[in-house]
TrEMBL record:
<dbReference type="Pfam" id="PF16976">
    <property type="entry name" value="RcpC"/>
</dbReference>
<dbReference type="InterPro" id="IPR031571">
    <property type="entry name" value="RcpC_dom"/>
</dbReference>
<feature type="domain" description="SAF">
    <location>
        <begin position="31"/>
        <end position="100"/>
    </location>
</feature>
<dbReference type="InterPro" id="IPR013974">
    <property type="entry name" value="SAF"/>
</dbReference>
<dbReference type="InterPro" id="IPR017592">
    <property type="entry name" value="Pilus_assmbl_Flp-typ_CpaB"/>
</dbReference>
<feature type="region of interest" description="Disordered">
    <location>
        <begin position="230"/>
        <end position="264"/>
    </location>
</feature>
<protein>
    <recommendedName>
        <fullName>SAF domain-containing protein</fullName>
    </recommendedName>
</protein>
Amino acid sequence: MLILVLAIIAGLIAAFLVHRTLRAPVKTSGIKIVFASRDIPYGAAISRDNLREVDWPWTQSDIPVGAFTSLADAMKPEGMQRVALVEIAKNTPLLNQNLSRPGQKASLSATLNENMKAVSVRVDDVRGVGGFIMPGDHVDVTTTFKQDSKSYTDTILQNIRVLAIDQINKDRPETAQVVKSVTLEVNTEDAQKIHLAQGSGGIIALVLRNPNDSAVEKVGRLNIGDLVPEVASGPQAQQDDDQGRRRDPYISDPRNSRSTRIRVFRGGDRNAEIWSGGVKEK
């Protein structure tokens, strides 16, 4: 009986302590952060009506980059309207990088970082990674071209931010979109590289990157010989051709050159059927 009474008393004490802890006021750092008080669509004006200040419980070093610490700070300069460059969800921090500059419209140019340019690349369902490239992704840019009757592929740009697909730049579509063009954020020199590759008849393709992968790899030029080494080695190719002639009497025997014969291989059968004049030879 005594044990039961002690267990009840211990349970009551524990419940009281939990209740007291839950009702205790939350300690704050004295810092306030501006949050969206409701969903703010792309292109919508930023005003005091869709913002609110929230107590920030952590230290100042934990404040998100670009956050505003007061409504007055978010409204500066007074009289200069700013608009959302992305959809801002309710109860999320308002960040400077997600807003246009004062007096600027919600256009593609407003999303460009300092000293960067926008350039568009023509793609299809293959060169556009099946339509899975979305605004905000990062890609590598490759070009394939012919020189002296040989094909080459180079990676000309790496880790490039996607600004838009076709005319879509305000958000990420929920499903893959097969588009005709992808707009990239590049510097002036990189824009020249893309225009040169397109102007010289090169085929440009995009390679989608892992969002956590920002490394720039050291890559070299590839040609058909890197895929099939025998193609690049002339002597070896000639040797294989000679061996093939020795194995096939219908090629190596001059007497057979007077009539046209066709060798037919079916499936994985290495023994060829010989047809001459539309008739199968035995």
